[in-house]
Amino acid sequence: MFIQNAHFLYSNVDEEIDVVLVGFADQEFETKEYILLQRSTVSDDQDKALGLDKVHITLNREDCSDYCDIKEIKLRRDSLEIILDDTTAKVHRVPNHVVIRFHAAIDQLQSIRNHLELMFQNEPGTLKCTDI
């Protein structure tokens, strides 16, 4: 299991490039540890054929990032758990279970939830929200 603490949380939809972003970092600037989830809100057949319609995850550095299948993601009041598919975990040599611990105001937590719901809207059952 990979556990990380986040003191800076970010979520947004970039409408210019049609991407939803959710990120967790150790700090806002000069970040050393972070997890960033990104997904295009618009995908065509070519994107799907190339696997570019999946979530893109980055774990602490650009060379540890890729499009992947996420089996399950659990949002709680104080944490986010991500269960990666075995292929992603093996390729990046990371555990398939990632936990991010954080403290968030209720409006920030709701924003993260809304953006994760948008990110996983075509994968019913993947996102689970509890204690919110």
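Next protein, fold it too.
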Amino acid sequence: MTEDKSQPYDGATPPSPEELRIRVEAPREELGKTAEAPEAKTDVKARAQEKSAAVRQQVAEKTTQVTSQLRDKATHAAQAMQDRTPGPVRAKAAAATEQVREKATTATEQVREKASTATEQVRDKAVHVAEVARDKTSEPVREKASQGMRAARANRGQLVVVGAIVALLLVRRSRKRR
């Protein structure tokens, strides 16, 4: 009797149908990831929106921090001056404190306006870059990427299950080697 060598296997017994399914599903999962990569890279608008949201958050945090620090220092300085100075000087200190508070509020508003303008500029540039990228990408490539994304989305649950099975098998295999 001759042995069938049309399908390679690493052990003494041929692979089970489950193992064959896993061998087929792994490349499919990788293909799904590969198909997602060009679309994710060309989605400049989404990446720009994420970046502008992060910048807005940073600006808001920094503005709040600086405003708080300025108010604390102004209050502390006013209190120190009030404790050590006569009445007329206290009135001037209070006026100066109020001026500092007003300037801090104005500075905060200016920073917010600039952040808003910068965010809008980034958004406009992102839209422009996305349009240029879309125009320069050939139709067959866009269609293949779109098909791959649809297939990956349609089989999301199965891909997760196959990924979990592959992970478990890899863990099991690594434990056997120890």
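About the second fold: The radius of gyration is 32 Å.
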